Amino acid sequence: MEVFIVEKPSDPLKNAEWLLEPAVPLLSFGGAAVALLAQMYNVPLDIRYPAFGCVAASLILAYLALLRPRKDIVAISTPIYAIIFFIVPSDSSAGILLLLLYAASLTILLVRLKRRFGSGRSGEEREDGPLFDYVTRIGETMACIPSDTAADAGRIFIRFAHGEYGMAAGLAQTYLSRKENEGDNALATAFAIIAGHDAQCSSAPAPISRLHHFTGEESALLFHPASESTDTEEEYSVALDNALLLCYAVAIAFAGEEQREQVRSFHPFAEKLASLK
Description:
By secondary structure, this protein is an all-alpha fold.
């Protein structure tokens, strides 16, 4: 079975992204500032000229959205709205207000893009470091994971990263309920731990997650060493982090290209689980 590893980042594209992101608020609010100053000092100026700042900022935001493996259709479509809003003449006061509101909207969309859709592919992963080594190790050690199972692992990881714990637990439980998936292995244990997390959050009397743990044989497949603490909460937290990181590594190593790209966009979340950020 072919094993996929993390791709080497493209530094020029990464640097371009860092430069373009601050350009969105600078251009949009800059255009609004020019229009406002022109009005304050009674300088005759067609509102459409400073509005080009918002149009340019919209184009940059759309480009940044296109860099993401997961496409944000709202951000991608902003140039269309910029043209509609600013292509026709309007009253100067109303135009300035619209510029300010539009600039604020673009800034909010930029923050949303970074938080919900991650960074561009070029800045997501490194070709070295603990996570890369872990994905490589999982790819070499667990060489019998079907791509559909890896896709399930990726979907569970993404749902959990979104904070949709119930959906992540449901997907994990659905996988475990299939007869063909019966058996003891590290990935099944990881799914069982995640399936129990929803019960943990619901304050169930006997959370399923506490009834499942990685065995000594499975510990070689884990990112974090098993907790030696007598604190059950800490032990559970480490086990949950290991379960999610195993899902991440399996998805990156064995899932199809589309699923891998989706999981890659949540690389920062994996770094947090790995205590790298």
